[in-house]
Amino acid sequence: NIPYNPKEEHTLVLIKPDGYARGLIGEVISRIEKRGFKIIGLKITIPTQEELEEHYFEHKDKHFFNSLCEYMSSGPIVAMVVEGSRVVQSFRNMMGDTNPALALPGTIRGDLARDWGPDRGVENIVHGSDSPQSADREIALWFPEMVD
Ligand code: RTP
Ligand code: MG
């Protein structure tokens, strides 16, 4: 990792297990770099149940929470800290709608994610923080060494 400058805006990006398994790491990283954002932290890990309960705490009472945790712990993910001006909202725009069927062409999910079938109701390639506050919390969870 390279130095974390708290004056810059950051977001936490995850390439989820379907993105990793389908060989889309390069595609996602390429889109981030072409947009002019800087990757300052990067690791491959298999999330634990504890990490997912913390990462997705806002969803713990939702009907999809169990399948979400099963999906997210089913294989390796790539976690990244991405830096740049207004990167939180920009990366949300780059991801597209949560549901791949509603994600517009030109977005990561709209171009790459498969439709949600009965067997994979939660897959959508990537995660991006939904606010700068969420980003701070998520970066502290996945990259504690970077911010302590
Ligand atoms: P993320 O947090 O992963 O960046 O996705 P998001 O903001 O677009 O969507 P969010 O509402 O935070 O949901 C988190 C993840 O849970 C799965 N999900 N499944 N079956 C469903 O109705 C449903 N709703 C959400 C997705 O993997 C979603 O990205
Ligand atoms: Mg979310």
TrEMBL record:
Listed HAMAP family? NDP_kinase
Any one GO molecular-function label of the UniProt entry: metal ion binding
Which family is this sequence assigned to? Answer: Belongs to the NDK family.
Task: From the Swiss-Prot or TrEMBL record, state where the protein is found.
Answer: Cytoplasm
Which Pfam families does the annotation name? NDK
Cofactor(s) the protein needs: Mg(2+)
Describe its partners and assembly state: Homotetramer.
Gene Ontology cellular component?
Answer: cytoplasm
InterPro entries the record matches: NDK-like_dom, NDK-like_dom_sf, Nucleoside_diP_kinase, Nucleoside_diP_kinase_AS
Residue stretches making up the Nucleoside diphosphate kinase-like domain: 8-148
Q: Which gene encodes it?
A: ndk
| Keywords on record | ATP-binding, Cytoplasm, Kinase, Magnesium, Metal-binding, Nucleotide metabolism, Nucleotide-binding, Phosphoprotein, Transferase
Q: Which residues bind ATP?
A: 16, 64, 92, 98, 109, 124
Record field: catalytic activity: a ribonucleoside 5'-diphosphate + ATP = a ribonucleoside 5'-triphosphate + ADP; a 2'-deoxyribonucleoside 5'-diphosphate + ATP = a 2'-deoxyribonucleoside 5'-triphosphate + ADP
Q: Which Gene3D superfamilies match?
A: Nucleoside diphosphate kinase-like domain
A biological-process GO annotation: GTP biosynthetic process
Q: Which PANTHER family match?
A: NUCLEOSIDE DIPHOSPHATE KINASE
Task: List, from the UniProt record, the residues annotated as the active site of this protein.
Answer: 127 (pros-phosphohistidine intermediate)
- Entry's EC annotation: 2.7.4.6
Per the annotation, which location comes first and is thus the protein's main one?
cytoplasm
Which protein are we looking at? Nucleoside diphosphate kinase
Q: What does this protein do?
A: Major role in the synthesis of nucleoside triphosphates other than ATP. The ATP gamma phosphate is transferred to the NDP beta phosphate via a ping-pong mechanism, using a phosphorylated active-site intermediate.
Origin species: Mobiluncus porci
